[in-house]
Amino acid sequence: MKNIAVIGTGYVGLVTGTCFAETGNNVICVDIDKEKVERLKNGEVPIYEPHLDVLFERNIKQKRLQFTTDLASAIKDAEIIFLALPTPPGEDGSADLSYVLGVAKDLGKLITEYKVIIDKSTVPVGTADKVTAAIKAETDVPFAVVSNPEFLREGYAVDDFMNPDRVIIGTEDEKAKIVMKELYQPFIRDGHPLIFMDEKSAELTKYAANAFLATKITFMNEVANFCEIVGADVDKVREGMGSDTRIGHRFLYPGIGFGGSCFPKDVSALMKSGLDNNFDFSIIDAVLNVNKKQRIKLLDKILDYFGDIKGKKFALWGLSFKPDTDDIREAPALYLIDELINRGAEVVAFDPEGMDNVKKLLGDKISYVENQYDALDGADALLIATEWSVFKNPDFNLIKSKLNSPVIFDGRNIFNLSDIQEKGVYYSSIGRQTILPKV
Ligand SMILES: NC(=O)c1ccc[n+]([C@@H]2O[C@H](COP(=O)([O-])OP(=O)(O)OC[C@H]3O[C@@H](n4cnc5c(N)ncnc54)[C@H](O)[C@@H]3O)[C@@H](O)[C@H]2O)c1
Ligand SMILES: O=c1ccn([C@@H]2O[C@H](COP(=O)(O)OP(=O)(O)O[C@H]3O[C@H](CO)[C@@H](O)[C@H](O)[C@H]3O)[C@@H](O)[C@H]2O)c(=O)[nH]1
What we know:
Elements: E1 3-7, H1 11-22, E2 26-30, H2 34-41, H3 52-61, E3 65-68, H4 71-76, E4 80-83, H5 98-110, E5 115-119, H6 127-136, E6 143-147, H7 157-162, E7 167-170, H8 174-184, E8 194-197, H9 199-230, H10 234-242, H11 263-276, H12 282-294, H13 297-306, E9 313-317, H14 332-342, E10 346-350, H15 355-362, E11 367-368, E12 381-384, H16 396-402, E13 407-410, H17 417-420, E14 426-428
Parallel strand pairs: 1-2, 1-4, 2-3, 4-5, 5-6, 7-8, 9-10, 9-12, 10-11, 12-13, 13-14
Helix pairs in contact: 1-3, 5-6, 9-11, 9-12, 11-12
Uridine-5'-diphosphate-glucose binds next to helix 9 and helix 11.
Protein name: UDP-glucose 6-dehydrogenase
Organism: Brumimicrobium glaciale
Binding site for NAD(+): 31, 36, 87, 122, 154, 265, 329
């Protein structure tokens, strides 16, 4: 059992804190957002993350999980302090380190005995040195700084955290290595190692992994775009490529680009780290440019079909950047909405979890409905931006009866081409033949 403080109780901090409590530790989570802490104290999970609630409730009940806004009291008895703070993109694409370094400075003022301070935020190579310097400027008390990047995916966060492919520990402090090994022991299985390395390599591993995955998706998006031009079927190409075990089937799904709170910001930040070191990360530059165009890929198809879209009404299914999350950060749907409303079109949207967040951002620029079929009333086409399960087996007769004409633009390829042929709709997707309604 260890006493742990987690500073920053967002997607990563709350999952980290809850999962460490689940493995028998005493955890206190800190946040500056008073309203969020109040909700947490009242037993409410403030984000939508499948399977988190069960662990959250159990560990609160057993008093292993607590919440506070008071940093000083939280870290007093904690041997281990996690930083799970935001590292949002600055205007030049660099990661904004003000949250991390601000808390490092506060910790320097507060610590009175040896602490292991662990950076779980995604931070550019060299940040552990900056954190160390910020703390050292305030205190002579010994401490270790560890880089322990997090690889969880939203929507699968609990499973990813409890059963990680690997855990990366970047530190050269021998005492900290022992603490980290004990802490992560419950999560380690055969073939899923705890990998020790220096801080810089750990920091770069995180960016390299995200940039590689973003590149894999982007490569497939370009292949899909080319498929459309030459009349190939990206589903077949994907299956054929993915069956090569060196390539693998995962992260080969083409669509309207990658979004979310991580890939866009982390790929930009790696690009900026390169520039800061006079290194031209040209492959990453290409990934960012292709993704920028890909996220509005449906617009080209819509304009090809309708010409002018002024006054047209579009039903939009899916707002979150991917299914099983309410997170709308950098969601491709938002870029599409922007393009549509700038051209005078009307958008009526439905998303199972993301609508409240979009309402806060866009207000009445678009309309919202509580049932996916209500979005279709009098709409000129249905657009699909997120592959939520509830969209995958819809009532096509109802869709056709509500739309002005049976037209679907699918940015996530959720229907089989062979199945959709029987449905009597115009169906345009990514990297595949356009299906025309049978006459
Ligand atoms: N979201 C993911 O899927 C994911 C996965 C892996 C890594 N990461 C990285 O983890 C970090 C955190 O991401 P997130 O998605 O959890 O962010 P988030 O915005 O959901 O949460 C950050 C939290 O920190 C709080 N905070 C800000 N300043 C604070 C301070 N001074 N003291 C205490 N709390 C403070 C905020 O109020 C917020 O609740 C980022 O670097 C991100 O890149 C995120
Ligand atoms: O084949 C695919 C796979 C994903 N995506 C898109 O890629 C984006 C990111 O998806 P995913 O990786 O599942 O979501 P995140 O929760 O953003 O997780 C990524 O970002 C996290 C934050 O750094 C990391 O911890 C995870 O390992 C990494 O997968 C989403 O817009 C998806 O729609 C595709 O277009 N095609």
